[in-house]
Design goal:
By secondary structure, the chain is of the alpha/beta class. The protein has a single domain (2-125), classed as Rossmann fold. The chain is 37% helix and 15% strand. It contains four helices and six strands, in the order βαβαβαββαβ. It has helices at residues 7-19, 31-40, 58-67, 97-111, and strands spanning 2-3, 27-28, 46-48, 72-76, 89-92, 123-125. Strands 2-1-3-4-5-6 form a six-stranded mixed β-sheet, sandwiched between helices. β1, α1 (7-19) and β2 form a beta-alpha-beta unit. The protein is globular and about 35 Å long. The relative contact order is 0.15. This is Response regulator.
Length: 129
């Protein structure tokens, strides 16, 4: 699931991920929509911006996802300190398609318990979660 309130970024990410073989279950721009999708769909990963439309933010999305054992990668221009306890990592905006793909590969390796050889630029992985 993609949680992003910048329409062009959301569209680009959705298109890129689908082209790369990922199934994007939903692309939403608010906490309320993200909560609904988390309840209704089987989600394997959430890509979430921190700032969102309406009430709530990406940190709230991450809390809800964590309660359902769904990993989160923040994609944001600024990840606050508390993001470390809620997500697997943070990819700093702006990023290229190539960097997003490399970040997802690194995240996949981490989730599968394999060593991550090299992090792409702008990606921080957290050990706290």
């Amino acid at each position: 699931m993609i949680v992003e309130d910048e329409v062009l970024v959301a569209f680009d990410n959705e298109h890129l991920l689908q082209e790369d073989g990922y199934e994007v279950v939903a692309t939403v721009d608010s906490l309320a929509d993200a909560l609904r999708v988390l309840e209704e769909e089987e989600i394997h990963l959430v890509l979430s911006d921190i700032k969102l439309s309406g009430d709530g933010d990406g940190l709230d999305v991450a809390r809800a996802a964590r309660a359902r054992n769904v990993p989160v990668l923040f994609v944001s221009g600024n990840c606050p300190v508390e993001a470390r306890s809620l997500a697997l990592g943070c990819l700093t905006k702006p990023y290229t398609d190539k960097i997003l793909k490399a970040a997802l590969d690194a995240l996949d390796a981490r989730l599968r318990g394999r060593p991550v050889k090299k992090l792409p630029p702008g990606l921080s992985l957290y050990d706290d979660v």
